[in-house]
Design a protein that fits this description.
The protein contains 15 helices and 10 strands. It is an alpha/beta fold and about 350 residues long. β4 (about 105-110), α5 (about 115-125) and β5 form a beta-alpha-beta unit.
Length: about 350
C-alpha cells in the first residue's frame, strides 16, 4: 500500500476544487488518533482519544487548511501571501510559501509569540513584522493590507482555510467508524471548531446522521465567547488561543448551539495540570493551548455532563516543542549530577525513594 497523500489528495471530492486548482502538499493530515490509557478510564469514558495534530509537517493543525488556502492563492495568481499569527499560522504559511515560491509576510504581536513558532517562521525565510499590539491589531492590519495591496490573506477568515481544516473530522470518522459523542477542542480565533462542525455535517452519510456535541474551551483570561464581549487585553499562558475578538465568533456559537454543545473557560492552572498529565500519564507532549481541550474534558463532570460510556475525541492542536520555554518553566526536573564511576552511579540510582531498585 502506498503512502497516504495530503488532505487535497485524500479528500479532494469534499473540497471546492476546480480543474485549475494545483495540488499543494507537504503530506499534511493523516494524524494519529491515540487512545487514552489513564485519563479516559478515570473519567469512565467508553473511549477517550487524542488527535495529535502536532504530527503535521510544521507541528500544528494549521497545515490542513494552509495547503488549501495556498493552492487557491496560487490558482488566483497570487505571488505574495500574508497572515497575522500568534505563532502556528505563521510557521505554516511560511513553510508552504517557501515550498511553492511565494513571498510570505507574517505579522505577530510583539513579545507575545512562543519562541519555537517564531524560530520556524524565521527558518522558512518569511518576512516577520512584530506589531506593538495584540493579535487582534495584527489581524486588522493584514486584512487591510490584503485589500489595499496585492497580498493573499491566508488567515482563517479565508474560507479555504476552514475547508481544509474540516478534513480532521473526516479522519476521525474514518478511523473510529462513527462520529464520537463529544468533540473537545481549544477555541482561540474559533476557525477550528467551525471547521470540525462543518466536516462532521458533510460526513453524515458515513455516520447514519450522527454528529458529536461540540465542546469548545477558551482560556479564562481570553474567553470572549464565554464572557459575551471582546477581551481588550487577553491574558493566558496558552499563547495560541490568546485572542480577544475571534474572527469566527458567530460560527463557533452556531457550532455550539446546533450540536447542543458548550463553550466554556478553563483556567491557566487547569490547562497546565492537563498539559503535565498528558505528558506524564499518556506520553503526549502538546503545547499549552492544546491541553485546553483536555482541561475541558476534566471539567465536564462538574459542568453536569456525564462521560460514562461515551466516546470522546480531544483535538491536540500543536506539538509541545512549539513552546519550549513553558516546558522549561513548568515541567522542569532537577538534573542529578554523577561522576563516571559505576559504584557512585548505582548509589545515586538506588537513592530515589520512588525507585524499587
Amino acid at each position: 500500500m502506498g503512502m497516504l497523500g495530503g488532505v487535497m489528495e485524500r479528500y479532494g471530492s469534499y473540497l471546492p476544487m476546480t480543474s485549475s486548482t494545483p495540488i499543494v502538499t507537504l503530506k499534511e493530515g493523516s494524524t494519529p488518533l491515540v487512545r487514552s490509557r489513564v485519563i479516559g478510564p478515570e473519567l469512565g469514558c467508553e473511549a477517550l482519544y487524542f488527535k495529535l495534530e502536532g504530527s503535521n509537517p510544521t507541528g500544528s493543525f494549521k497545515d490542513r487548511g494552509m495547503c488549501f488556502a495556498v493552492a487557491k492563492a496560487i490558482e488566483g495568481g497570487a505571488q505574495h501571501i500574508i497572515c497575522a499569527s500568534t505563532g502556528n499560522t505563521s510557521a505554516s504559511a511560511a513553510a508552504y510559501g517557501a515550498r511553492y515560491g511565494l513571498s510570505t509576510v507574517v505579522v505577530v504581536p510583539a513579545g507575545e509569540i512562543a519562541i519555537g513558532k517564531l524560530a520556524q517562521a524565521m527558518a522558512y525565510g518569511a518576512r516577520i513584522l512584530a506589531v506593538n499590539g495584540n493579535f487582534d491589531d495584527a489581524l486588522r492590519l493584514v486584512r487591510e493590507a490584503s485589500e489595499q495591496l496585492e497580498l493573499a490573506l491566508v488567515n482563517s477568515v479565508n474560507p479555504f482555510r476552514i475547508e481544509g481544516q474540516k478534513t480532521g473530522a473526516f479522519e476521525i470518522v474514518d478511523e473510529i467508524g462513527d462520529a464520537p459523542d463529544f468533540l473537545c477542542i481549544p477555541v482561540g480565533n474559533a476557525g477550528n471548531i467551525t471547521a470540525y462542525w462543518r466536516g462532521f455535517n458533510e460526513y453524515k452519510d458515513k455516520t447514519d446522521g450522527r454528529v458529536p456535541r461540540m465542546m469548545g474551551f477558551q482560556a479564562a483570561g481570553a474567553a470572549p465567547i464565554v464572557d459575551g464581549a471582546p477581551v481588550l487585553k487577553p491574558r493566558t499562558i496558552a499563547s495560541a488561543i490568546k485572542i480577544g475578538n475571534p474572527a469566527s465568533w458567530r460560527y463557533a456559537e452556531e457550532a455550539r448551539d446546533e450540536s447542543d454543545g458548550m463553550i466554556e473557560a478553563v483556567t491557566d492552572d487547569q490547562i497546565m495540570d492537563a498539559y503535565l498529565r498528558l505528558a506524564r500519564q499518556e506520553g503526549i507532549f502538546c503545547e499549552p493551548a492544546s491541553a485546553a481541550s483536555v482541561a475541558g474534558v476534566l471539567r465536564m463532570p462538574e459542568l453536569g455532563v456525564s462521560l460514562a460510556g461515551r466516546t470522546v475525541v480531544c483535538i491536540l492542536t500543536g506539538n509541545g516543542l512549539k513552546d519550549p520555554s513553558t516546558a522549561e518553566q513548568r515541567a522542569s526536573v532537577e538534573l542529578e549530577y554523577v561522576e563516571p564511576d559505576f559504584a557512585q552511579f548505582e548509589a545515586v540510582l538506588r537513592s530515589d525513594p520512588k525507585s524499587s531498585l
